[in-house]
Amino acid sequence: MTKEKTSFIYVTYIVSTPEKVFEAITKPDIARRYWGHENVSDWKPGSGWEHIRANDERTLQLVGKVVEVSPPTRLVITWANASQAADPESYSRVAFDIEEYEEMVRLTVTHDELEADSGMANGIKKGWPVVLSSLKSFLETGRGLDVFAKPKAA
After folding, report:
1. pLDDT per residue over 77-130, tens digit each?
2. How many CB atoms lie within 10 A of CB 64?
3. Cα–Cα nearest to 23, from 117, 139, 129, 103
4. What tens digit of pLDDT does each residue of 13-38 get?
5. Each residue of 93-104: pLDDT tens digit?
6. Phi, psi for 33 (deg, rounded to 5)
7. How far apart are CA 86 and CA 114, in angstroms?
């Protein structure tokens, strides 16, 4: 029996260039400044990529493969928890589409092939908005957000 799949799409506009947005996603030293993680790969189709927490422990949290790369307008990767890397069914897909507007960029992140109501599907619904808001803040002001912040108690 096939499990039900779902997707998540997030669109944001950033005062930046396609090149800077693409680099912010693919260069570990930039990603760590707004994401708290480094995306590590040679960014060639078929290559692996790793999402590593940018702290002293350097925990490997996510893994996947590079599916498509067209700098600076498109990147597609597969995505799974490192603990589930051996299970082909655990992988979802993320596409970053970067479109230049006059003085800004439209970034569309499409995370699909997610198992509906899974921990991953529920987690990314919270994760992508804060990460992409932090990316926008970082590229526009030089300062990312605290992507690990918790809601204040009432």
Report:
1. 999 999 999 999 999 999 999 999 999 999 999 999 999 999 999 999 999 999
2. 23
3. 139
4. 999 999 999 999 999 999 999 999 99
5. 999 999 999 999
6. -80, -20
7. 16
49 vs 63: CA distance, rounded Å: 6
Spatial distance between the Cα atoms of 13 and 100, rounded to a whole number of angstroms: 10
Residue 39 to residue 54: CA distance in whole angstroms: 10
Q: What is the Cα–Cα distance from 137 to 53, expressed in whole angstroms?
A: 20
* 3 state SS for the chain: CCCCEEEEEEEEEECCCHHHHHHHHHCHHHHHHHHCEEEECCCCCCCEEEEEECCCCCCEEEEEEEEEEECCCEEEEEEEEHHHCCCHHHCEEEEEEEEECCCCEEEEEEEEEEECCCHHHHHHHHHHHHHHHHHHHHHHHCCCCCCCCCCCCC
Place of tokens 């529920």: 122
Q: What are the backbone angles phi and psi of residue 102, rounded to the nearest 5°?
A: -55, -70
Mean of all residue pLDDT scores within the chain: 96
